[in-house]
Amino acid sequence: MLEATARDYPACAEALQQQAAKATVTEFENTGAGFFSTLSVDDDAPRLAPASPLDGAFGSVNGVEDAMGFVVFLKGGKLSLIEGYCQSLQSTVGIDFEEVTFDLQPWSEMPSTR
User: Fold this and answer.
1) Fewer CB within 10 Å, N or C, the chain?
2) What is the mean pLDDT of residues 24-29?
3) Which H/E stretch holds residue 36?
């Protein structure tokens, strides 16, 4: 997911990828309408300059009928939280987000509905 996010933020893509490589999930909650994933990043990772939140990605998730959207939150220039949310009223209660496959794209590649 962070790889797709990096494509929309080319000025900080390398730092974002370096943080992603050093990030660990410290807390995870399946909310029933998506999830919250709390992250911790090593202090020696380069800081990110963009304002939080970042447009993460959108796309299909195995087990979810409609697309999901993703938002990336930063704290002190470091990754802190990823939010995934259903774009419909479908429940995610039975979905194991560690096991499912994702097919995600940057928000800039979202097809226009006009």
Assistant:
1) C
2) 97
3) strand 34-41
| Residues whose CB is less than 8 angstroms from the CB of residue 101 and which lie 6 or more positions away in sequence, other chains included | 61, 62
* Rounded-to-integer distance, Cα 25 and Cα 9, Å: 22
Q: Which two tokens stand for residue 16?
A: 């974002």
Question: Do strands 34-41 and 102-105 pair parallel, antiparallel, or not at all (unpaired)?
Answer: unpaired
Going by C-alpha positions, the residue among 34, 30, 20 that lies closest to residue 74 is 20
**Six-digit token pair at 64?**
């979810």
Six token digits for residue 46: 């380069």
Q: What is the pLDDT of residue 114?
A: 45
CA–CA separation, 89 vs 76, rounded Å?
Answer: 33
For 54, the token pair is: 């970042």
